[in-house]
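Hey, weird one. I pasted the ATP-dependent 6-phosphofructokinase sequence into the form twice and got a warning about non-standard characters only the second time. First submission, copied straight from the form history:
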Amino acid sequence: DDSSSPSIDAAARKQRNIAVMTSGGDAPGMNANVRAIVRSAINKNCRVFAVHEGYSGLVNGGPEYIREMKWVDVRGWLNMGGTNIGTARCKEFRERWGRLKACKNMIEAGIDALIVCGGDGSLTGADLFRAEWPDLIKELLDKKDITEETYHTYKHLNICGTVGSIDNDMSGTDATIGAFSSLDRICHAIDYIDATANSHQRAFVIEVMGRHCGWLALMAAIATSADYVFIPEKPTSVDEWSDHMCEAVSQHRARGKRKTIVVVAEGAISSNLTPITCEDVKKVLVDRLGLDTRVTTLGHVQRGGPAVAFDRFLATLQGVAAVDAVLEGTPETPSPMIGIAENKIVRRTLVDAVKLTKSVAKAIEDKDFEKAISLRDSEFHEHLKYLIAMNIADFREPSLPVEKRKNFAIINVGAPAGGMNSATYAFANYCMSRGHVPYAIYNGFSGLARHESIRTIDWLNIENWNSLGGSEIGTNRTTPEEADLGLVAYYFEKYQLDGLVVVGGFEALESVSQLEASRESYPSLRIPIVLIPATISNNVPGTEYSLGSDTCLNKLVEYCDIIGQSASATRNRCFVVECQGGNCGYMATMAQLCAGAECSYVPEEGISLEQLETDIQTLKAGYASDKGRNHTGRILIKSEKASKALSTEVIGQMISLESEGRFDSRTAIPGHVQQGGIPSPIDRTRATRFAIKAVEFMEEKWSVVHNAEDEIGEFEDSDEVSATAAVLGIERSHVKFRSVKTIWNNETSHGTRMRREIFWEDIRDIADMLVGRVKI
Ligand code: ATP
C-alpha cells in the first residue's frame, strides 16, 4: 500500500464530494468497501468523507461525525473485520424529522453524493431518503435554513447502495458483502462440532443467524452435509417437520452415521408462523429418537474476524463500481445498487431491489411460501431443491422410474483442488436420490486402465467428504490416450456406463476432448460427458471459475496477511511472495487485489526491468514517507512463471540492493499450501451445485448421444451430439454448459495450456489503482 495518493489531475473533472457510510449490522468486508470507495473517489479527483456511526452520524452531523478521508487513512483496512467507521441502528432516521436533519447536515458538510453500505433495512432507508430529498430540501429552503443558491446546488441527491450484510437477504444480488465470511465461520464451527458429535454419537442443533433469510443456514447445511435444516422460507407444520426430521435422521443413523447435525436459522418458523427454536428441535430429537442432543448457538462469532477473499474482492469491486455509478448519475437516472450475478458486478435499480426484497418478507407474512422461495435468487432456489432431493433420497423410492435409471461415473483428473470431494459427495447422493448407480473411478484414467479401479460409491464412506481437502478417489494428470484409450473404452463398455463427470483442470479438459473425439471409434464413449473445472490455477478454457481456486486464494491471502504482519512489525521489510498458477496470472492478480499488495507480476505480462525499477522506486518512496508511523507490511506478488530470467530470489536481492539500506526484502513461497486443505464454503457449495447440474445434464442428453447412429449403425456426429461433451462453467453472469469441441478448438491456447481470453484484466487495473500504482 503506497502512502501517497496518485497525482490528481485537478482540472480533469468537476470535483465531487462523496460521503460513505456503513449501516445496520457490521459485516466482514465493510472496511474493504470503504477503502475502495475512498481510494477510487480520490483517484477520480473527488473529495471523500466518512459518515461515522451509520445514519446517526448523518442525523447528528458536524465534524465529529462527518470527516474527510485521505488516501492513507484506509491503509491496512482490507483485512480488518467489522467496520472502522462505526455503524448503528438509528431510530431517528426512521422519522421524517430525523431525515430532515440529515439532509441539512449533509448540505452543511458540502456532500453531494452518498454511498451506503448496509443490508436491506439500510438500503430501504437510503431509498426513502432519496425519494423524499426534493421535499426535504424544499422545506429547508422555505424555512430559510438554506439559501436559494444552496438549494439549486444540492437539489438532486445522488445515492448508491453497496450491499453489506451477513444475511444475504437482499434481492438483486447473488451475494452481499460479509455473507461468505460468515458462512466460512459457520462451516468451521460445524466442522469442529462434527468431530465431537462423532466421538460421542451425539446430535447437535446449531442456530445460525438469519432473521428473515435462510441463506446462511441452507448453505451451511449443504457445505457440511447436515442432516436437516430449518429456514424461514420453507416452513412446514409442526407434525410434518417433526416427522420429516426424525425420518431423515433415523435413516442416516440406520445407515451407520454416528452423528446428527441439524441447522436452524434464527428466523425459522413453522407454517402457522410460530418460531421453531433450537429447544423445540432438541426436544423432538430426545423424545422421539432418544438421541443425546446438545444445542449450540453460534451467535456473534459469525460476524467476526477478517473477511474471506471473496468478500474482499466483492467489497472492493463494488466500491469502485459505486463511485463510478454516482459520478455517472444524472438527476434522471434512478439510484443504483451494486450487486453481483455469478461472476459479474452488476448495477441494479435500488428501488426495484428494495421492492423485491420487501415482497419476500410480505410473501412469508402472507404464508405464500412458494412465492417467497421463487423471489429468492436462482442459486438459493436450486440449492434448496437439491438439498431436499438429497435428504429424502434416503427413505423414499428414488424419483425416477426404473427404466430411466442409469449408471453414471465420476473421475478426478489433474492436481488436487478444494471441492473435488464435495463434487463426488453431491454427485453420488443426487444419483442415489434419482435411482442411478453412482460409480467412482479411482486414481484417474491410469487407475482405470491399469487396475480396473472402478467401484460403486457407498453412502457411508463418503458421508464426511464435504469437509475434506484433496481428492479421496485419487487424481493424476494422465489423459485417456496416455493411459490407453482402448482399455478405458473397454471398461466403459464392461460397466455399461451411461455418463461420465470429469472433475479437474487443463488435463481434464484435454481428457474430455480426447474421449469426445474417439466416439466414432468406440461406441461405449457415446455417452454424455461433463467437465466440472477444478484447479487452483483457474486457467481452464470455458469458465471464469474453477473449483479450488477460491480455497487457494483464501490460503494465499491468509498467508499474505501473516507475512504482512511480520513485515509491518519489523518496520522496514518487504516480502516478495511467489504464487502458483501455471502460465496464468489470475491467482497472482486476485491475491494482489485481496491482500492489498503493491503489485503482481504475471506470465502474461512478464517483468520488464523498467517496471521493476519503477516499483522499487515506489517502494523506496513509500518507506521514506512512513517516517516511523503508519507501518503496513509491503508485499509484492510474483507468479512462479512470470519471468524466466528474474526469479523470486533475484527480485528480492535486487530490492535489497536498491534500497540502500533503508529497508530489506525477503522472499516467501507458500508452495503446495496453496492447494488449501479444508475446502472453502464457496468451493463446497459450488461443487454441490455443479455436480447436480452435471447429473441433470447427463439425464437430459443421454438419448441425444445414444441415438446418434444412422440406420446401418454408424455414428453420426453433429453439433447437437458433440455438445453432449460439455464444460460446465461460469461465464460472466451465467452458468453454462458449452461444447468441449468448440472450446478446445477455438478458445484454448494449447502451447501455454490455458484459456486464450483473459477475463481479469479489469481486476488488475483496479488492484493497481487501489495501491496508487496507476490512475484509471
Ligand atoms: P442487517 O442486514 O445487518 O440487519 P440492515 O441494514 O438490514 O442490516 P437495519 O437495522 O434493518 O439493518 O437497518 C439499519 C438502519 O437503517 C436502521 O437503524 C435505520 O436507521 C435505517 N432504516 C432501516 N429501515 C428504514 C426505513 N424503512 N426507513 C428509514 N430508515 C430505515
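That's the output from the first submission. The warning seems to come from a hidden character in my clipboard, not from the data itself. The longest helix spans residues 681-706.
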